[in-house]
Amino acid sequence: MTLTVLETGPLATIQDRGRTGQAALGVPRSGACDQRSYELANRLVGNRPGAAAVEVTFGGLVLLAGADVVVAVTGAPCPGVPLNAPATLRAGQVLRLGPPRSGLRTYIAVRGGVDVPPVLGSRSTDLLSGLGPAPLQPGDTLAVGDAHDPMPGVDLAPVPDPPAGEVVISVTPGPRRDWFTDAAWTSFTTQRYGVSSNSNRVGVRLEGTPLERARDGELASEGMTLGAIQIPPSGLPVVFLADHPVTGGYPVIAYVAAGSLPYCAQLRPGQSARFTC
Amino acid sequence: MRLLPAGDHALLVELASLDEVLGYYTALAEDPPEGVVDIVPAARTVLVTTTGELDGLARRLGAIEPLAGSRGTGDLIEIPVVYDGEDLQDVAELLGCSQREVIERHTAEEWTVAFCGFSPGFGYLTGAGDWDVPRRKSPRTKVPAGAVALAGEFSGVYPRESPGGWQLLGRTEVKIFDQDRRLAALLHPGRRVRFTDTGRR
Question: Which of B1, B2, B4 to mutate to test the interface with A (most CBs of A within 10 A)?
């Protein structure tokens, strides 16, 4: 059983829950950026947690089914496909994702999971570290694994689409909050940032008024985890997503609260975001 | 020791020195609290990520005593090096000695992997010697895999081709990171390293 990639759009990769437990060796976690949508897609087709799915950035993916398969599409809503519901794709049928109405990343789970060889315990593509399968290319064929568990008996998961307008992201103060003035913190938690087109799976780069530091000097590189908001010398925040490096040398002013991480993964260039503590 | 907040699932332990980091990491890695999924030592800190709740983790982390003398207790790996690096002469000038003496110092040292970062399997090695070598003024866009280098108080070996600003002493054919190997990273925290001179240039 296979799916053939006919077109990929700007970027399509294989993702799962990522490589945990190996950060001490310099191996980043990677995995689906929007874990919530990814997990939902797997649940809708009765996959076991951790099955590999396709993460599509800004639509454009076209898949041809080589046999009858059950798929579910979640995350950024792309026209042309059934959303948040299991659907059967018959042999010879094509799944074509249009550009999403809101959000950035769409997940396609196939019943049985995408069966590519795991690398260091995960099937995720890590763009920063060059681990896992290469980004999808037209002509690639994706093997589909065996189904293990019964279908969940759910027709539709009623979940909201990623917001289209300004997104409010909950944060908690980070380990280097004290490297910034109180005025900088106020500016950080009140200003409206724009999402830069220079964003990717490593991080969301933001545009706005630079933040002022309370102290100079270099920070010795330290461990960082998902949702770290680094402030490089430009004074403009970078929110770390799935492919972030395991250590970084710029002070982390705040961390994104776990519940807000999926929203960060769905921010698209040009959208605006505010942080609230 | 200071415990600093790092989001809903992690705490950052700040320590006084690299030696304390090594000792703390060794003590923690031997008996990690339940729920801990990742421990990332760095130059002055250890980041601990958990699936559990943070209050309990903070109590456990605060009670850990860094093991004294953790440097030099891990297993020893030999890495044969061809010392023909492009920056060997610059390093000799920076240290005020000859190229030969740089090689002798580098091979005489017993290095310890203090932590990893930068890219998968890149180990930051520290020695007992007084190494303090600035990075190159302009980083190279391409450093080949296996390049043996110095920067600051650290030595390292590039696991794969990547950009980099460290001063290149030579190269090794040892595979530092092999994703198909059971232990993909050769240089994991605590291991000791001795570089040997193959004599080839």
Answer: B4
